[in-house]
Design brief:
Length: about 220
């Protein structure tokens, strides 16, 4: 069984490689259960390393060197919701290189509130070392359904995409978003959750399970 688990982990790791991973979000405020469920179902952040590009509006964007990482925030829709603030807590980030908004999405570094709303309830409390907020009016210039925002960072010397992923997985780096204009006028805050498996990775692991199952039946 240990050998099977190791093989599955290895194949999943190989399938997930490529210097781009997608993380979901978990609601931390719970002002309205329906709003939390909506946000958890349709809000994502892609962590993009050198050599990869993602679409933001009609154009592809990606880091230009190994010491940069692009975070693409997506609202996949269809339910009403607007990302109006993005927050980063510690980790391997050094300095903001660029905010990339598609048509209709306009953010600026800083703004109010300076820390993730509800972040003090976390353990340890969320302490934003960088944040950007939607320009007024936020419900218009934020990330609405089917829109995206890119945040490109330079990294500390000697660090790479792998270090960012390691920090996200360990909790040394946390990403928060403040989301407004849910149905009923509610707002909620979210922090990054686990990695969202790519369909190719799911298919590959499923194939490995099938082959291992057949092999075990033959041995039996």
């Amino acid at each position: 069984m240990l050998r099977i688990a190791w093989v599955l982990w290895l194949f999943a790791a190989i399938a997930a490689r490529g210097d781009i991973l997608t993380y979901s979000f978990q609601c931390i405020t719970n002002n309205n259960p329906s709003s939390c469920a909506t946000g958890e179902a349709q809000l994502f952040v892609d962590v993009v390393g050198n050599g990869q590009t993602v679409q933001i509006g009609s154009s592809p964007y990606g880091p230009s060197s190994s010491d940069q990482v692009l975070f693409r925030f997506r609202n996949t829709g269809p339910s009403a919701s607007v990302i109006t603030g993005v927050y980063f807590d510690d980790g391997a980030l050094l300095s903001l290189a660029q905010l990339i908004g598609m048509t209709g999405v306009q953010f600026s570094g800083g703004g109010s509130p300076p820390n993730l709303p509800g972040g003090n309830s976390l353990s340890p409390p969320f302490n934003a070392t960088f944040h950007a907020t939607a320009d007024p009016p936020p419900s218009h210039n934020g990330v609405n359904p089917y829109e995206a925002l890119g945040v490109l960072f330079a990294l500390q010397g000697g660090l790479s995409w792998d270090d960012v992923i390691g920090a996200l997985n360990s909790g040394d780096l946390r990403i928060g978003i403040h989301v407004q204009a849910f149905q009923g006028g509610y707002s909620e805050s979210f922090v990054n959750n686990g990695v969202v498996p790519e369909p190719a990775a799911i298919l590959l692991v499923g194939s490995v399970l099938l082959l291992l199952g057949r092999r075990l039946r033959v041995r039996a």
